[in-house]
Write a structure and sequence with these properties.
With 417 residues, the protein is α/β, with parallel strands linked by helices. 33% of the residues lie in helices and 13% in strands. The protein has a 7-stranded mixed sheet, sandwiched between helices. Strands 11-12-15-14 form a 4-stranded antiparallel sheet. Helix 6 links the parallel strand 5 and strand 6. The longest helix has 23 residues. The structure holds pyridoxal-5'-phosphate.
């Protein structure tokens, strides 16, 4: 087991000892968590950082309510997309001038995929991997259609061999949303560069939980999500990263007035701003952006290496307890067994996965279901404890023993699963 040695045999007291020795234990206090819940869904919607409500109260009552339009200058609203980007940068190993916060991940994929294709006008292939998050594919398909190029989607097993000198842009998710499998960011960036391709990383399931070194790895382009492991709140704006060596060559397809070098000159023609401001299109959702701003303070002094070590230890513990306690209940392990290849989640397949997820939620253990048959448990190491893993598997064991997942009330599907 990576990071933390787990004693054998294991009981609840021994697991509590792991929490007592956890260097990140105190970080949990930076979050507001309901006492009666075990929250294993921080990969879909991060928990509420304790600093956010007071900050938003001030933003709404003072900055909006009293300072009104003056806040664009006096309260720094205008610079906020770049300022919050600079705050986020160290979490993903970027330089402070390489990140801007704006729009949604989907929209940013569109902007950066076109920008990436424009860097290789002589090539006609976008390469992506089958089975990953569909919004990325929808966007890439639209980009391919608009530019009249080919979107080549290959199975994971064939992916690395398909990175050839025909390819203009490789678009990949760093951690797969369903399985949790990791693509090595440094190594695959190098593969793309070896054949002269541009790489666009989607960091939705890795930003805030996996240490990474975007700049030093030479990664060209990346997008990521503000509301998952970065805890920015529902619908938090996403981010764009562009390596500083490329920024002045980048041209994105949604030029708006916020990406203009002199927006308040209201000129009839577009003159692109220097640096990352060129990725901006329109006015930011300031309330959401400033919630993310305050949320990022929770990362303050936290070492991403320690986060990763705890993440691997939490998922190892989960797999071990699942094996020991519900190993004969028909679960398959979908996530990689090697912790180095696994993001901060454990995905288990089961024919009744949907109803099992519902039965767990009814018992106060929140994970989620991903079609067709996956119970997905996400681990945000800044606030999930080892004892939460123990208690969650205890509840899962009871759900399986009692077969309560067969009850009618656990079959109904809501819009969001
Ligand atoms: C969560 C996620 C998204 C989300 O996109 P939005 O535009 O924010 O809704 C995109 N891509 C991946 C890989 C994701 O996991």
């Amino acid at each position: 087991m990576a990071g933390v040695p787990v004693p054998v045999p294991l009981d609840r007291d021994a697991v509590c000892e792991l929490d007592a020795a956890d260097p990140l234990a105190g970080v949990r206090e930076r979050f507001v968590l309901p006492l009666d819940l075990i929250y294993l869904d921080g990969n879909s919607l991060g928990a509420l950082p304790a600093a956010v409500p007071a900050h938003l109260y001030d933003v709404v009552h003072r900055e909006w309510g009293k300072d009104l339009i003056r806040s664009w200058n006096s309260n720094g609203w205008w610079e906020a997309p770049l300022r919050v980007g600079a705050k986020l940068a160290p979490i993903i190993g970027a330089h402070s001038n390489e990140v801007v916060v704006c729009d949604s991940t989907s929209v940013n994929i569109f902007k950066l995929a076109i920008a990436g294709m424009r860097l290789r006008p002589d090539r006609r292939v976008i390469l992506a991997e089958g089975g990953t998050f569909p919004t990325d594919h929808y966007m890439l398909a639209s980009v391919a259609e608009l530019l009249g190029v080919e979107l080549r989607i290959v199975p994971t097993a064939d992916l690395y061999a398909a990175i050839t000198d025909e390819v203009a842009l490789v678009s990949l998710t760093n951690v797969d949303y369903r399985t949790g499998a990791i693509h090595n960011l440094e190594a695959v960036t190098q593969l793309a560069h070896d054949v002269g391709a541009v790489i666009l990383w989607d960091l939705a399931h890795s930003a805030g939980v996996l240490p990474m070194n975007l700049h030093d790895a030479g990664a060209d382009l990346a997008v990521g999500c503000g509301y998952k492991f970065l805890n920015g709140g529902p619908g938090a704006p996403a981010f764009c990263y562009v390596h500083e060596a490329l920024q002045d060559q980048i041209s994105q397809p949604l030029p708006g007035w916020l990406g203009h070098v002199r927006p308040f000159d209201f000129e009839p023609s577009f003159d692109v701003a220097p640096g990352m401001a060129r990725l901006l299109t329109g006015t930011s959702p300031i309330l959401s952006l400033l919630a993310l701003d305050a949320a990022l303070d929770a990362f303050g002094d936290v070492s991403m290496q320690q986060v990763r070590e705890k993440s691997m230890a939490l998922t190892e513990l989960t797999l071990r307890l699942v094996d020991e306690r519900v190993g004969d209940s028909g679960f398959g392990v979908v996530s990689p067994l090697d912790p180095q290849l696994r993001g901060s989640q454990v995905s288990l397949s089961h024919p009744h996965a949907f109803a099992i997820t519902q039965a767990l939620i009814a018992r106060g253990v929140i994970g989620d279901f991903r079609t067709p048959d996956i119970l997905r448990l996400g681990f945000a190491p800044m606030y999930v404890r080892y004892v939460d893993v123990w208690d969650a598997v205890t509840e899962l064991d009871e759900v399986m023993q009692t077969k309560e997942y067969l009850l009618d009330r656990h079959q109904a599907r809501a819009t969001v699963t």
